[in-house]
Amino acid sequence: MTFDLQSYLPFLFPPRGPNDISRLRKIGGFRGGCLVDSVAGEKISTVEMKDDNSNFAAVSSANSEAVRAKTEALKTLKLDDTMEDVLISYPDQYHIVRPLQSDEKVFLYVALDRKSANLDRARRKMKSIESQLGR
Amino acid sequence: MELARETEATEMAVADTSPDRPLRIAICGEVSSGKSAVIHALLREVCLPDFFGIEDRPVIRISTGADAPSVTVLKSDGEAVALGSADELVAEEGLSEIQIMRTAAGPFGPCEIIEMPPLRDGHLTEEEIARIEDCDIMVWSTIGSQAWRLSEKSILDEIGVRRPKRGVLVVSRGDKFRSDNDRDRLMERVSREAASYFKNCVMMGAATDLIRASAEDDGAWAKSGAEALAEAINHVKDEEFDDEAHSGADIVDISPAAREAEEAIEPFELDEDVVVVPADAKPLEAAEPELEPAPTETEDDAADNGDVKEVDASPMFASGKGKAAKQKQLEAFISTLHGVIAVGSVELGRPRTMKVIAGDRPVARNFSKFCLTSAEAMLKKTASDLDFEGEHVSMKSHQVLYAIEGKRVLFFASETAKLPTGIARTAFNRLTALYRAIT
């Protein structure tokens, strides 16, 4: 009996889809993440929460909508600048919302534990993950 | 002329915080632990003067792979001096930063090497920790004869989870040992004892003559230990790091209580060495024309049309000697920050009174409207059990931070290039604490 490694590879290393956001889990302090269409108000993909007791699904949708409104409000400042991301602070959590460069109405959203998150590294990681989306 | 100098000085603080920036390496260690020698060995050139005996040492920032070479010295009084070459650098008191741009890419490609000054009073300041946190790799230099002391562990513990997880420990002055056997035994001990802090450990013996010889001689470069260090840095920089998986093994975590203490805001004391930027030095030209405040407008008018009405900032703070002193502290603190555009507070309810603490008033008015709109939207949408505190909106060139403080929104806007995002957050935390003490 021969062992055909090739046939097992897709199970061992499943290919990443265009909306694969599983790498968000690698961010220190990760609590939950998703890709949100802020106009339709729906999740394109989600990475499960560790201990979801914070109504993450509803909060991420609502906040994404608020951030979209913010991108419009920014235009009134006439700064000739573009938004990179928004950090939202709660007593125990940080949420980072990052518009996709390819579609600014779609946001990469992550919730982090406030005590263990390294924000600069988390922002860099999100930038890296965002650049891989859609490929 | 003074203004030009100040402008130059503020530009010295430029730090690219974008995720696409070049690799940033922090060279850290205790006093006379061989930090400069590490840099010289890596660059194969003795380019920095000996700061031995100088009490307040500057931050050294060396960029490799730059478009054009330059050497600039930022003095503590705000003056920026451009030099012809690094040979003209003189070790003296009163320098806050030295910036060297080199066209050669060096052993890791374009990168930024930052030598942190030795500690003051055995502790790192919040700004120093923020600088280290902004780096991708920490190279920690420990003196061979006293390698890996308790005091070094204490410093790293103080930095805690904000320490870059990619790190290399350098044991300096390895050439001072009598035999290979002594060197091997030392490296075995240090590697074992420092394992929970650094996985990579390299011995260097970078005597000045050897560094000079290494400019032309690869053998000398290898002998100095710089080649091994360059390899170690190249190895860790390409690591796809799983923050979570390594959180226990690679970094000394601190308890929640210690973390809280770490984040606690110290009372601010004005450092006279810090460059003072006039608070109203940066009006936003593009935004000004339509931002003229209406002088005849009353608070009632403002309430009716939803607009923001500016009032004098001084009555914002309750009277009393202590609070007046705090207000001065607040203003002095803001004046030490680079790239500040506007700071103020605005009422959440009606009337929408705005109080400008620093910056150009019409511009502050515009930012206050933005923050007010954002805060109200977030308070309306966010689930009540999460207790929304505030936001940090990062753009390519600007950033806006605001926090809900009772019935008011405290806001802060700055240029990202002049005030890195990490430092801006720290500064805003201090500012918030001072504001609370006053109001």
Which structural class fits the helix and strand makeup of chain A?
Answer: alpha+beta
| Percentage of β-strand residues of chain A | 25-35%
Number of helices of chain A: 3
What spatial form of chain A do the alpha-carbon principal axes imply?
A: globular
Radius of gyration of chain B: 24 Å
Cα-atom radius of gyration of chain A: 17 Å
Oligomer: heterodimer
Low-confidence runs of at least 5 consecutive residues of chain B: 1-15, 244-305, 314-318
Portion in helices of chain A? 25-40%
Distance between the termini of chain A: 38 Å
How would a crystallographer describe the biggest sheet of chain B? 9 strands, mixed
Order of helices and strands of chain A: HEEHEEEH
Task: Report the major sheet of chain A.
Answer: 5 strands, antiparallel
The number of helical runs of chain B is 14
Q: How would you state the average pLDDT of chain B, rounded?
A: 76
- What's the average pLDDT of chain A? 82
User: Which percent band covers the strand fraction of chain B?
Assistant: 15-25%
Strands of chain B, total number: 15
Number of strands of chain A: 5
| Largest binding interface between chains | A-B, 46 and 49 residues
Helix content class of chain B? 25-40%
Report on the structure:
The complex is a heterodimer of chains A (135) and B (439). Chain A has 135 residues and is an alpha+beta fold. The N and C termini of chain A lie far apart (38 Å). Chain A contains three helices and five strands. Chain A has helices at 5-12, 56-75, 119-132, and strands spanning 30-37, 42-47, 83-89, 93-99, 106-113. Chain A is globular and about 70 Å long. Chain A has a five-stranded antiparallel beta sheet, sandwiched between helices. Chain B is of the alpha/beta class. Helix content of chain B is 34%, strand content 21%. Chain B has helices at residues 2-12, 35-43, 126-133, 150-159, 180-193, 208-214, 218-224, 226-237, 243-246, 256-263, 299-305, 321-335, 361-381, 421-438; strands at residues 23-29, 59-63, 70-75, 80-83, 95-101, 111-115, 137-143, 166-172, 200-203, 309-311, 340-347, 353-359, 390-395, 398-405, 408-415. Chain B has a nine-stranded mixed beta sheet with strand order 4-3-5-2-6-1-7-8-9, sandwiched between helices. Chain B has a six-stranded mixed beta sheet with strand order 10-12-11-15-14-13, with helices on both faces. In chain B, a hairpin with a 4-residue loop joins strand 3 and strand 4. In chain B, helix 12 runs antiparallel to helix 14 (421-438). Chain B is elongated and about 80 Å long. The chains are: A alpha+beta (135), B alpha/beta (439). At the A-B interface, helix 2, strand 3 and helix 3 of A face helix 9, helix 13, strand 13 and helix 14 of B. Strand 3 of chain A pairs antiparallel with strand 13 of chain B, so a sheet runs across the interface.
